[in-house]
Please model this.
Amino acid sequence: MTVTIVGSQLGDEGKGALVDRWGGDADVVVRYQGGDNAGHTVVEDGAEYKLSLVPSGAVRGTIGVLGNGCVVNPSTLLSEIDALRDRGLDPDVRVARRAHLILPYHRVLDSIEEAGKADDDDGVEVGTTGRGIGPTYEDKAGRRGIRVGDVLDRDVLRERLSYAVSHNRAVATGVYGLDVDDSEHADAFDVDALYEDLLTVRDRLLEDEMTVNCSDFLHRRRQAGDRVLFEGAQGTSIDVDHGNYPFVTSSNPTAGGAAVGSGVGVTAVGSGEVVGIVKAYLSRVGSGPLPTELDGNDHEAALADDIRERGGEFGTVTGRPRRIGWLDLPMLRHASRVSGFTGVAINHVDVLAGLPELAVCVGYELDGEQIDTVPTTTGRWKRCTPLYREFDTWDAFDGAAVADAGYDALPEAAQTYVDFVADAVDADLYAIGVGPDRAATVELANPFDRLDE
Ligand code: IMP
Model:
């Protein structure tokens, strides 16, 4: 029995709040893609934990697994675990032996490639998080990556490192003109230094019995009756296949990624629940087109500022202010089709309260034609003019009281808004986020209960 949580937009939809909520009903929470480019805050008993790699359930004693589809920076992983231990927790984290490692040279290459693009006037900069995600997935696809399992065998590790480092050094020197040995990054490309560091990682992984054959581990847990929650990071529109390429991350946040990135069969993932998490407006960190962006004039910029401030729209990992736009239904329809949503949760509905106006993009006009889905090329998407439907706004309300009292206590205009969105993507409405506090959620259905029905 599995529940998969997927970001429907551009990441930062507030997936963490629902993973926290429903993760309590799971025995195992699995991340299946991405790495420490994700960031979420878990609040448990009033204490706040900022995590980017450790699955959030680990804070409350659920087993957290980083699947083979993840890219793992071992220093981030071990320091997050240590920080949780320092605060009296004992997180049970397992890492797939088939997952790939983010090593220091990946971060260096990520930042120098981005810096080079930023100097270019062609608008090719992606605005990555600088965590080395892209270069690590490149090495994976290029068959020169180093996997968690490789670290466990000293000889294999040495051999794999020698090959991977020589290739990445050649890229740094030949493509980017970096004088590696005479730079602050010398250690990042030094086989001996990397080898020594990874031996320390190896000791920790062995000591804590952290590594698993992910597919086999999850198979056995599921056979024993465990409930598995797949925690997607990022979102559909930055999926490397289904997003607005090249302004994407390098993995598959969409639901198909849960099967590939964990070794659990597609039939198991597909016969479970797939819940799309939607933010009631759009935010984007990083570059790329955003047809509904509120940046056309001073009035729109003021609306965006208001939403940004109220919604706390600043990157969790990078602190960058996020770009803001109206909700984009073509984007959501695409997300629902790609992942096969059984339900949706709509977050940040409180943030829209009291706005002077409210609109939803219901389709686009492109080259004189009306279309209702996102074009396959970013160039065409950029040329789309949104077609809006206006909605009545609603007054500010007490999120905690509404969460307690349930859906009927929501202002009527807010009910109309969320019902319209769920209808448009042909999925049931499972939850509505009505406040920054995790408890401020109106729950209409729990996906694990749905599976029991
Ligand atoms: P990367 O994943 O660091 O390579 O960044 C690629 C693109 O994905 C950039 O536009 C990032 O801003 C975006 N991105 C990566 N992770 C997240 C996330 O967790 N939330 C929102 N955007 C993200």
Observations:
- The chain has a mean pLDDT of 94.
- The chain has three domains: 2-96+208-270, 101-205, 278-452.
